[in-house]
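Q: Structure tokens for this one, please.
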Amino acid sequence: MSEKSKGVALITGASSGIGLATAQALQRDGYRVFGTSRKQVADVEGITMLVCDVTNDESVQHAVDEVLRLTGRIDLLVNNAGIGLLGGAEESSAMQAKALFDVNVFGVLRVTNKVLPIMRRQRKGRIINMSSILGLIPAPYNALYASTKHAIEGYSESLDHEIRTQGIRVVLVEPGATRTSFEENLTRADQPMPVYDTVRADAERLMREIVEAGDTPEMVADVVVKAANAFSPKRRYTVGKVAGQVHFLRRFLPESFVDKNLRKYNKLPA
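A: Here is the predicted structure, written as tokens:
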């Protein structure tokens, strides 16, 4: 590792959107960056792209081994790979819910478990898990997706306490709505029910509007760089004004007030 390098960073789900913007921001900041995607893509602006399916143990191991072969270390892991799911909670089969958790939760677990022994040997490392403001609040018609982010919140905070004495810290980055491709990582419920057709369609329209007016991936990337470089990192970093406001409301205001305003925001009847 050169004197000018801040270390080696591995970012999952880095072929587009937040992941790509984060990889580029870290590369500019002085990290040697490796990104992953499910399918082979070309290297981008000094970023080495690797194939990694976070739902497959062998694929994860191969990607981590390749970074070690080329650099001998991993200083920063950004668990960004994830997918969305739109629909009423009861409109998804158990199989679909398991597939969602396999990417958004167990994918994080797989990659983290492969990287932790490396960081422990180094006595140094930082893990940034990409959560969401939906990891803090209810999310009508995104219930299963929100559940995965709630799981990541609990996992990350608990893991940080377990490994802090080993020189490793775990932090959360919580974006709000971000201007990425709406269709790219969105799955729809596999057992749609007529009772939800109208309100689900309304929820999808609202989500599109929110995404179009959301923060840029570059804003999220800047926060990741801040979290990566902080000498004493905070437990969580929100991204953007809306996410910060939601975090404040959830923490400090009465539950009934939050409930009322959440229904109003989602255009649901009181």
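A few notes: Residues 85 and 225 are 28 Å apart (CA to CA). The chain has nine helices and nine strands.
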